[in-house]
Design goal:
Layout: E1 3-7, E2 10-13, E3 18-25, E4 33-39, E5 45-51, E6 58-60, E7 68-72, E8 78-83, E9 92-100, E10 102-105, E11 109-114
Parallel strand pairs: 2-11
Antiparallel strand pairs: 1-3, 3-8, 4-5, 4-9, 5-6, 7-8, 9-10, 9-11
């Protein structure tokens, strides 16, 4: 079992940047597909970005393509989500999701983008 912890959220003005981290406690994420999801206020949780462990291919929601970048850190237990050109509609709680047969969620980190 893996525990995922998100960090890096905060309050930022529109057009600004943030980098979120998803860190696994106790083990590397080498064999996990990792994704980020956003739950905006009053909305369902939705996919943002993913990176696959086998070849590090990445996928993005259309709404974030060209603005967000998902990547693995040099430490094998961390995945980042670099967010640029943030918009108010990017506001919400960002969750890290790990899959390796089973599925795991972190507790989320709040991102607020002011207009």
């Amino acid at each position: 079992q893996v525990q995922l912890v998100e960090s890096g959220g905060g309050l930022v003005q529109a057009g600004g940047s943030l980098r979120l981290s998803c860190t696994a406690s106790g083990r590397a994420l080498n064999n996990y597909n990792i994704a980020w999801f956003l739950q905006a206020p009053g909305k369902e949780r939705e996919f943002v970005a993913a990176i696959f462990w086998f070849d590090s291919t990445t996928h993005y929601a259309n709404s974030v393509k060209g603005r967000f970048t998902i990547s693995r850190g040099s430490a094998k237990n961390t995945v980042f989500l670099q967010m640029r050109s943030l918009k108010p509609e990017d506001t919400g709680v960002y969750y890290c999701n790990g899959r390796n047969g089973a599925m795991y969620w972190g507790q989320g980190t709040q991102v607020t983008v002011s207009s």
